[in-house]
## 1
Amino acid sequence: MTTFGLHTSVPTLRRNEVSSDTAEHPHYREGARRALNVAVATLGLVVAAPIMVGVAVAVKISSPGPVFYRQRRVGLDSRTTNGGNHRRKIDLGGRPFTIYKFRTVRVAKPGQEVQVWASQNDPRITPIGNFLRRTRLDELPQLLNVLLGDMNVVGPRPEQPEIFQNLRTEVPNYHARQQVRPGITGRAQITLQYDSSIDDVRKKVAADLEYIESQSLVEDLRIMAMTAPVMLFRKGSR
């Protein structure tokens, strides 16, 4: 059988050349970061399971209504990352998804549901909800959002669609936050306080965009590590 000299035309690749090229590939980096997020979310759900059961019981007995709160949020804009569908009928700024949290507010009466900006002294918050918000325990169900691929552990916080539409007309580059998956925690959440003005939002957007520019496995691990003290000592923002 004739081989046509194939053995002479195949280049010899050294091991370090292959690993170097692969390590620099953006899909490899994103795959590594995604694997880290899935691992952290899985471990987090296992470790936090007893706490989540206790929180669920506390929410249920403290006020009438469901244990979990579901809400539509704006997620990753695939058009800015992989050339996705540009023919979207309504430009929401990103792919909408359902976020999960422990309920911290009183159930609204039918027809009174309004998308409003969360505030530190929101009168709708229940007593147990106030504690959950200060300690961020209400965010634990979002570990499921990470496993579903809607979020990462670290990233810009996702916003409600109507509020998103308003903010992207008032805050320059607000839509640029959608270049990455939204997160449970982020650089803005560990360094800044609750929003009380548009200027506060601008500061958070600046922090989010700085994160996007410097995102890496090391940076994600640093933010994750800094989130624990924020939860314990009730500092930072949501």
Note: Residues 1-23, 81-86 have pLDDT under 50 and may be disordered.
## 2
Amino acid sequence: MTAPAAGPAPLPASLARLLADDYRRESALTIKVLRAYPAEQAELRPHEHSNSAHQLLWTFVIENALIEGAVRHGLREQTGWGEMPPRWDDTLRLYEEGVARVTTLLDAFDDADMARSVSFFTGPKQRGEFSLFDFARYMLKDSIHHRGQMSVYLRLAGAKVPSIYGPSHDEPWR
């Protein structure tokens, strides 16, 4: 008897599982990119109007905090984010800890939880309602966008760019 042909992974049974799986996978790729960044170049900014690499890392921390706040209390109790740590490594540790917390929270949710309402900004001084699924997915997509920015910062810093969705010059697959 021969082994069955390899095929695509089965689709998750629910939106909650889909989101948790996507978050886990994308966050692991983001950590890979962030760990590749040289901490001694944390203040690099490609343009005077750009955030520094460290400020960009802090954005990832805030996005995790927003997802966590949405899951815990619908963001209705939003507070300040505190101060960005002065060291790259400390900020990276906060991001990784946030990933662990959000992953645990999302793993415990089901589709009914994903339908809960979350209030968030829709424009200047305007708020609107989103499902928790849509809000968390929005934050995840924004994080993916910023990860793309960080991959450019890596190149500008003279660091190696790891593969993300496919091979890179520095991490070929062949």
Note: The two ends are 32 Å apart (CA to CA).
